[in-house]
Amino acid sequence: MRDPIGLAYLLARAADTIADTSLISPTQRLELLLSLRNLVNGAPDDGTLTERLAQEVADQQSLSDEKVLLESLGGALTVLSQLSDSDRTAVRGIVSTLTQGMEFDLHTFPDESSGRIAALNTLEELDTYTYLVAGCVGEFWTRMTYAHMPGTLKGEPGITLSNGVRFGKALQMTNVLRDCSKDLRIGRCYLPSPMLNRYGLSLEDLLTPGASRRAQPLLFELLRLTLDHYRAAIDYTFAIPARSVRLRLSCLWPVLIGLETLVLLVNNDEWLDPAKISKIGRNKVYRIVAASTLLEPSDRMLRAWIDRLIKRIEARLNG
Asked: pLDDT tens digit string along 177-232?
């Protein structure tokens, strides 16, 4: 299970590096991204893409890890070809879906330096986006668990798979709401236009002082949706038996960190101020990891912890 998941992560991170670099135009990024997807899906590799990546992207990366990652892409593709047929198909599927999410961003939003802002058209579009960039990861993780650790996940497979998708969506919705102020300043508004209209808000309004208060009802509506996704993520986590310590903790940590982030968000009256991002500190993360590791065997104590966080969020939403 570790090999296909690790490889999928490396390929997705390489794709993300291409999609996010502002040093080349969105058109160039999209072209390189689609070429990478084709290589992952088995297109012949004549070395053109790796050469272009070295010249157009890797050489311009200030972060050495990203530079090394792009330069080692050929090796990653070789490892992909050596996986079992089922694992190779799964890795190709997840990387293809994730790159569709990156493609969505490049098609939907203006160039970061254009000074323009665009919003999503519908709530359904936001839901699709969260699937493409995160929900599909929960789906992939679940399928890998069924394939490599059969009998680990309790419950009906269809429900568990759906919960895995919603797990990913919960985490991405958290990112969307937490990072909204920063995304707005590079031209990206993931808040759907119909919701903005319903609350009497324009894209320009979101950049003004006092916008956070005016947009708080919209935030609360999306937080309720996000919290519903977390409930599915919680069910997913407790479908993993306590004896599968690593697997359970790998799900428990993002749930706890995500809910703690929602506590900050729901109480942040300046959530659209880029200087006041709702992000929990490193020491808090360490405490969550330490405490949850100790409590991992106890469903009762873990549920009590999670319930307390949810009640804090709901108290503000309903206050």
From this structure: 999 999 999 999 999 999 999 999 999 999 998 999 999 999 999 999 999 999 99
- Mean per-residue pLDDT for 173-180? 98
How many whole angstroms separate alpha carbon 287 and alpha carbon 292?
A: 8
- When the pLDDT of each residue in the chain is averaged and rounded to a whole number, the result is 94
Considering the domain architecture, whether residues 84 and 115 belong to the same structural domain is answered as: no
- Please enumerate in sequence order all residues whose Cβ is within 8 A of that of 152, keeping only pairs 6 or more positions apart, or say none: 145, 240, 241, 244, 247
Residue 315 confidence (pLDDT): 98
Boundary of a domain, candidates 84, 108, 132: 108
Last residue of a domain, which of 108, 135, 150? 108
User: Using alpha carbons only, what angle is made at residue 62 by residues 59 and 63, rounded to the nearest 5 degrees?
Assistant: 105
- Provide the token pair at 289: 């990891």
DSSP H helical ranges for the chain: 2-20, 26-40, 48-56, 64-71, 73-82, 85-108, 123-130, 136-148, 157-178, 180-184, 193-198, 211-214, 216-238, 245-266, 282-295, 299-317
| Rounded distance between C-alpha atoms, residue 314 and residue 227, angstroms | 9
